[in-house]
Design goal:
Radius of gyration: 18 Å
CATH superfamily: Spore Coat Polysaccharide Biosynthesis Protein SpsA, Chain A
Number of domains: 1
Strand content: 15-25%
Largest sheet: 8 strands, mixed
Oligomer: single chain
CATH class: Alpha Beta
CATH architecture: Alpha-Beta Complex
CATH topology: Spore Coat Polysaccharide Biosynthesis Protein SpsA, Chain A
Number of helices: 11
Length: 305
């Protein structure tokens, strides 16, 4: 691991000081934290009522230690999560060639940074691979140590400058292409989860998800994302603390207590991974009331403020 070039880490924060603290403290426990540059984008208050919490977050940010370099970017206005991530990732990845991305409610395993940096090094020159992902749904089926799926994801991820070039923010174009190429059912994991409906919602303005456009962009380009066979990310934001997120434990995954071994990963769209995801989506939708499922859909690929 000492030979690996560590990627800069971006954390996007807003008005949740406790979530932000837990996210940073988990990262500090990673072996490579001290070798990593940290960029924190702090969005400005949306309403006067948010000023106090935003200020509390920013006061905490000034106390952070344990990283090679810490850069805090305070926005004077409220950009919103989608605009913040699109512009922030573009800015840093264009400067540094690669980047690891987190939001303020993602607690990571102590092995998260090692996995991300090793994978970024390992697949840097493989143009079939668009990104690395750290979160895994709480699936019941056995999975490989790590595996690839078509598309991209959003709960603790990393990419290269070449990968981020795939991103297209035009939701209407993406949806039209999915329909033209008759890929809607495949995009929806064999019809088990309505990701295409989320894309329609983004177009209509009922959500402002950057992540559904990232997934669609990579999917249409035929690009793969690496997933760990055990989750390295636990989202602590599903507690009604965000503007658009409800309260559910349905997406909670236990953090891996061991490192992910990347020595024998087959670079192809994984049948086991697709089956496990489809089974999880199908079981989740059939086992919960429609009202709760609407909350879960919101959590997966829409903004949290």
């Amino acid at each position: 691991m000492n030979q690996i070039i560590t990627a800069p880490i971006i954390i996007f924060v807003y008005n949740r000081p406790d979530h932000t603290r837990r996210t940073v403290e988990a990262l500090q426990k990673n072996e490579l934290a001290g070798q990593s540059a940290l960029y924190i984008f702090s969005d400005g208050p949306k309403t006067p009522g948010d000023i106090e919490k935003v200020s509390e977050v920013r006061e905490y940010l000034k106390t952070i230690t344990g990283f090679k370099q810490i850069n805090i970017i305070e926005q004077t206005r409220n950009c919103g999560l989608a605009s913040s991530i699109i512009s922030g990732v573009s800015q840093i990845v264009n400067l540094m060639e690669r980047v690891i991305v987190l939001e303020d409610d993602m607690v990571t395993s102590p092995y998260f940074l090692s996995y991300m940096n090793e994978a970024l090094d390992l697949y840097e020159s493989n143009n079939d691979i668009v990104s690395i992902h750290g979160y895994l749904y709480p699936v019941q089926q056995p999975l490989p140590e790590a595996f690839f799926l078509l598309g991209a994801d959003c709960w603790g991820w990393a990419t290269w400058k070449r990968g981020w070039r795939c991103f297209n923010d035009n939701g209407q174009f993406l949806l039209d292409e999915l329909k033209r190429r008759k890929l809607v059912r495949a995009f929806d994991f064999n019809g088990t989860y309505p990701f295409s409906k989320m894309l329609e919602g983004q177009i209509k303005g009922t959500n402002n998800s950057w992540a559904i456009r990232w997934y669609a962009s990579a999917f249409l380009a035929g690009k793969l994302t690496l997933y760990p066979g055990r989750s390295l990310v636990h989202n602590i934001g599903n507690d009604n603390s965000g503007t658009h997120c409800g309260q559910t434990s349905n997406l909670d995954s236990d953090l891996s207590k061991t490192a992910i071994n990347l020595s024998n990963v087959v670079v192809e769209n994984s049948k086991e991974g697709n089956y496990a995801f489809e089974h999880f989506f199908r079981q989740t939708q059939s086992g919960l009331l429609p009202r709760l499922m609407r909350k879960v859909r919101t959590l997966l690929f829409t903004t949290q403020r």
